[in-house]
Amino acid sequence: MMTPVPRTARHRADPDAAVPPCADCIADSAGGLTFDVTETGEPGAALLVLRHRESHEAVSLPLTPTGDGRLRAALPSGVALPEGRWDAYVQVAGGEPRRLAPGVDDLRSLVARVPSGSLGHVAVRIPYATRHGNLSVRSWLRAPHAEAVELYRAERGLGVRGRVYGVPLAPDAYAEVCHRDAAGPPIRVEVAVEQAEFGFTVAYGALRPGVWDLWLRPAGEGGPRVRIARLLDAIADKRLFLIHPRVPVKTLYGPVEAGPSYTRDNDLSVTVTAAG
Predict the structure, then answer these.
(1) Cα torsion 109, 115, 120, 121: sign
(2) What is the model's pTM?
(3) In the chain, N or C terminus with fewer CB closer than 10 Å?
């Protein structure tokens, strides 16, 4: 997937405003990223700095000349990048870091990616343009991870097919459907298991209005509780791009409209709203 990102336009009243340095990003199938940054024109060693938006933890990567007027930094898959949003900067000779603008992203290797899961976790890094026109990287580090591979309309509600990483699926695995705001036990759903793949159906008729989060218990009641998400593609925030239609349903709580939705973190949920 080649994703050209529009540059932030200069304000007409300030034609001499400095253009921020720009970075093209290339993703590899192992989860690594390569950044190609426009030359800053400043003397001295340069670093690409990724700064976690909440903890302010920083990861610094050396930028080296490529011979075509650009600088390159590599973020290998083996370098730990804790989950969250990381803002990208360029820093020259120990000076003040400057925000990077997004360029052209080559994320084709992320589409339909199937990690081995041999390390016990799944690491995903997706570069994206912020609403202010800056470059950031969304990182996920899930151990274990339950990937929602396919969603489909089942006879009684939402059908989910997925794959689990980092933990074996036991015969007594099951899913939980949990109301995000209301107290009470989760709804337990039977899961069909085939090696590392699972499938289940969320019956809309049992759901009251609200948002219901989907979890997998891959090892049964005594094992880990894993949030089901869709991470293995090139979309950093699916809320605006993967919009599923809602269907009218008659429930114990009256007529509703129900359908799958994603959170800001690309976790899978079901949204139920009262009809009318």
Answers:
(1) positive
(2) 0.88
(3) C
